[in-house]
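From the methods appendix. Each design record in this collection lists the tokenized structure first, followed by the designed amino acid sequence. Records were kept in a plain field format so they could be parsed without special tools. The example shown here is representative of the layout used throughout.

RECORD:
FOLD TOKENS (54 positions):
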């Protein structure tokens, strides 16, 4: 990994404000938004799996 890539990754992983709510995320923090997305994906997957087993 080159120096610029490491700097960018460091900013994203450490410097990006994951606590402050963002307008783009519906006033959720990035972490809350990602958690909701992952929960929704699991819910949809479980629903599809349940329908296929009927």
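DESIGN:
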């Amino acid at each position: 990994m080159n120096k610029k890539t490491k700097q960018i990754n460091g900013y994203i992983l450490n410097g990006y404000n994951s606590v402050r709510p963002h307008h783009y995320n519906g006033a959720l923090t990035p972490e809350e938004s990602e958690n909701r997305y992952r929960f929704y994906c699991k819910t949809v997957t479980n629903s599809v799996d349940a329908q296929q087993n009927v």
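APPENDIX NOTE: Residues 13 and 44 are 28 Å apart (CA to CA).
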